User: Which sequence fits this backbone?
């Protein structure tokens, strides 16, 4: 059974991520989407990231959503995964991704990293761009799956309001 893991922050999941999930699920028997809990980076969406991913992948039968913390290679080993999937948008992603994959290869020579290039229409898209757009009330429906548009919009409008309130921008 060919098993792979697609790890990331998914804060929140974008159409670019979903594209990589669909394409990699077609290549393997079982795909784990690993939602990273990183102690140095507080996500805007914490546990909801798993639920959002479950919602947007519910029609893809061989995809499983799990959260993890610690080393990716340990998590991959625990689940008998043979490959790590990463997406590449531009050369700017490449340097970091190459170093990460080489590090993982030293730590776990039996697990390979497979890079999928972005579909061109999502080449510009990142979770940060989605958050920035949502923060200023922009239309995010072209960036994230339809079923999570409202969740992202609401979260951002409420946290933006709290900040604005703290700053005295909202009286
Ligand atoms: P991380 O914090 O690990 O970079 P992200 O959630 O930002 O997590 O991204 C997870 C993976 O998805 C990374 O390999 C990233 O390069 C890839 N990715 C993100 N956005 C896109 C996109 N628009 N097209 C293709 N791959 C993407």
Assistant:
């Amino acid at each position: 059974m060919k098993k792979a893991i697609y790890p990331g922050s998914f804060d929140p999941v974008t159409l670019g991520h979903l594209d990589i999930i669909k394409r990699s699920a077609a290549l393997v028997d079982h795909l784990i989407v690993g939602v990273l809990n990183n102690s140095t980076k507080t996500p805007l969406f914490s546990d909801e990231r798993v639920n959002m991913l479950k919602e947007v992948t519910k029609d893809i039968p061989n995809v499983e959503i799990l959260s993890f913390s610690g080393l990716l290679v340990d998590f991959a080993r625990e689940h008998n995964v043979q490959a790590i999937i990463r997406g590449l948008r531009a050369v700017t992603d490449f340097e970091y991704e190459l170093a990460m994959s080489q590090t993982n290869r030293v730590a776990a020579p039996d697990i390979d990293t497979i890079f999928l290039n972005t579909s061109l229409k999502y080449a510009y898209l990142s979770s940060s761009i989605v958050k920035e757009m949502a923060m200023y009330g922009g239309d995010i429906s072209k960036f994230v799956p339809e079923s999570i548009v409202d969740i992202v919009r609401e979260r951002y409008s409420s946290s933006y309001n709290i900040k604005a309130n703290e700053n005295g921008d909202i009286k």
Notes: The pocket of adenosine-5'-diphosphate is lined by residues 8-10, 14, 16-17, 20, 86-87, 89, 93, 118, 122, 125-127 (CB under 6 Å). The beta strands are 3-8, 30-36, 63-68, 83-88, 112-117. Helices lie at 15-25, 48-56, 72-78, 91-107, 127-135, 149-166. The longest helix spans residues 149-166.
